[in-house]
Design brief:
Blueprint (H helix, E strand, L loop, with lengths): L9 H22 L10 H41 L4 H11 L13 H5 L2
Helix pairs in contact: 1-2
């Protein structure tokens, strides 16, 4: 795994990366196999319902297992970004040029977040 923006954040980054990679591997194993029957059949509909429930459970597992680690790493990064001259402004400019949308529950640090004390 790569290093963080700040050496002070390496431990929390490694902890989060390890958790996420483990979780994501199991998530992909859940969502990647093709369904065995068309959704228009009762077997196919049941299979999709079961997978939908399993995916919801897997998302809850992510929050339980990795959510705190993610937030801890983000807090560390906020401090590190404040310490890098011009980086906050560069990030804000990039967000205006290419806004990230559709990320669901993932919170990308904004300039307003960096101003919070």
């Amino acid at each position: 795994m790569s290093s963080s923006l700040s050496p002070a954040c390496n431990a929390s980054k490694t902890s989060y990366d390890t958790c996420f990679n483990h979780w994501f591997k199991s998530y992909l194993l859940l969502v990647s196999p093709p369904h065995s029957a068309p959704s228009t059949t009762s077997v196919g509909a049941q299979e999709r319902d079961e997978r939908t429930r399993a995916i919801a459970e897997k998302k809850d597992e992510y929050e339980r297992e990795c959510g705190g680690r993610y937030r801890e790493y983000q807090e560390c990064l906020k401090g590190a970004i404040k310490g890098k001259d011009g980086l906050a402004e560069l990030l804000e400019s990039a967000r205006k040029e290419e806004p990230l949308t559709g990320w669901g529950a993932i919170k990308v640090v904004s300039e307003a977040d960096l101003r919070e004390e």
